[in-house]
Design goal:
Blueprint: H1 2-5, H2 11-64, H3 76-85, E1 89-93, E2 101-108, E3 111-118, H4 120-170, H5 186-232, H6 237-264, E4 272-275, H7 276-287, E5 292-296, E6 300-303, H8 305-322, E7 328-332, E8 335-339, H9 347-352, H10 371-381, E9 384-390, E10 396-402
Parallel strand pairs: 5-7
Antiparallel strand pairs: 1-2, 2-3, 4-6, 7-8, 8-10, 9-10
Helix pairs in contact: 2-4, 4-5, 5-6, 6-10, 7-8, 8-10
Keywords: Kinase, Membrane, Phosphoprotein, Transferase, Transmembrane, Transmembrane helix, Two-component regulatory system
InterPro entries: HAMP_dom, HATPase_C_sf, HATPase_dom, His_kinase_dom, HisK_dim/P_dom, HisK_dim/P_sf, TCS_sensor_his_kinase
EC number: 2.7.13.3
């Protein structure tokens, strides 16, 4: 939970950042507008006050003839403007930002009369307004961003649920559903699409499983007759060839039946404490293949010995059939590694796992692709993890990790 809260790439924080960005833009636009409007109003009031003061000075000048200000102190730009136009002019003097003035001047009888009005109070009021707007904007952001994150939590939670269900479906739980409900938003549409996909995959897989089981059972009866007939043939090269093909066909049918039982989920492990090294050595001995076995210590595992025997035999046979010698088996603790020195497993198998009737790259040899499929299925039954990889110096590796209760 804490990791999700700190994940800044989460949709929650993306929505909060978007809301914060939009709020900042709105606050900035409103602040600039208010600032400019207040500044214009202050300038207008300053010009009005300066004009009133100038009118009073002009009245005194006409009555007394005394010039109130030295033309030398009048800003040069204002002095030039009024002399050129002969009309009253105003000028905001911000040469000293801390002490601003508003000047008003007008030529009268060859003289230029000028007055200045203090704009310091207006400037201070404007700066106070800017500070208040900044503080108010920060306060609003402090409230809006958490509220946006909380509001984004509901759709974020629904999306995480859809993601969890999708991962369960990818892991083989085709009965998992999102239970999208009756909403009409985009998340509901995604949920409905995931449920539909899972349903279609489930139906397709059930059809494939039924087909495999039906084919295996239908082949069983004629196969028994074929085996009996092959045994009755007189000895000879042709008869031995027929018997060899019949044995291959029998193995194929038995594998198909085994796969159909694994697909149906009817298999249950019979767990007991077994000496792992002895089980592995006995299994390899029954295959009749040359394998270099290394057992570290005297490991004991709580597992199903019969299914372990089938897993090891299938892995060793696969290594001899599709790889190159030497084939090595290492037993360390509850981990068993089977390795050959051939071209390695194809990329498709490493990415998707073993698939029935798919043998991968041509250089891996020929076969029906059932041995690894059965080994993976039996590993699931006994609660083990079977993974596939390629060694850095060449060769395929199959690693069986027994998970202890």
């Amino acid at each position: 939970m804490g990791r999700r809260l700190l994940n800044w790439r989460s949709l929650r924080w993306q929505i909060a950042a978007l809301v914060a960005g939009a709020s900042v833009v709105v606050a900035l636009a409103v602040g600039i507008l208010v600032h400019q409007s207040t500044l214009d109003r202050s300038m207008s009031l300053g010009r009005g006050q300066a004009s009133v003061a100038l009118a009073s000075v002009m009245a005194d000048y006409r009555r007394t003839g005394v010039v109130p200000a030295d033309p030398a102190v009048i800003p040069a730009a204002l002095l030039q403007e009024v002399r050129n136009t002969g009309l009253e002019g105003t000028w905001y003097d911000d040469r000293r930002p801390d002490i601003p003035w508003m000047w008003a001047a007008q030529p009268v009888g060859g003289e230029v009369l000028a007055v200045q009005v203090d704009m310091g109070s207006e400037l201070r009021n404007l700066r106070a307004l800017d500070r208040h707007m900044v503080m108010a904007s920060l306060g609003v952001l402090g409230v809006v961003v958490p509220l946006a994150a909380l509001a984004a939590e509901l759709p974020n939670r629904r999306l995480r649920r859809v993601a969890r269900i999708a991962r369960r479906i990818a892991d083989g739980d085709l009965g998992a559903r999102t239970s999208a409900g009756g909403g009409g938003d985009e998340i509901t549409e995604i949920s409905v699409a995931v449920d539909s996909m899972a349903g279609a995959l489930h139906e397709r897989l059930l059809g494939e499983q039924r087909f495999t089981a039906d084919v295996a059972h239908e082949l069983r009866t004629p196969l028994m007759g074929l085996i009996t007939s092959a045994e009755l043939l007189p000895d000879g090269e042709a008869a031995e060839l027929v018997r060899d093909r019949v044995r291959v066909l029998r193995t194929l049918v038995e594998n198909l039946l085994e796969i159909s039982r694994l697909d149906a989920g009817a298999e249950e492990a019979e767990l007991s404490s077994v000496p792992l090294g002895e089980v592995v050595e006995d299994s390899i001995r029954r295959t009749g293949l040359q394998v270099r076995v290394t057992v570290s210590g005297e490991p004991v595992a709580y597992t199903d010995a019969r299914r372990m025997d089938q897993i090891i035999a299938n892995l060793v046979v696969n290594a001899h059939r599709h790889g190159r010698p030497p084939v090595e088996v290492r037993v360390a603790g509850t981990t068993i590694v089977v390795r050959d020195h051939g071209p390695g497993f194809p990329d498709e198998l490493l990415a998707e796992g073993p698939q029935r009737f798919r043998t991968g790259a041509a250089e891996r040899g020929h076969g029906h692709g059932l041995g690894l499929t059965i080994a993976a299925g039996q590993a699931r039954v006994i609660g083990a993890v079977l993974s596939f990889g390629n060694a850095p110096d060449g060769g395929a590796t199959a690693t069986l990790r027994l998970i202890q209760p």
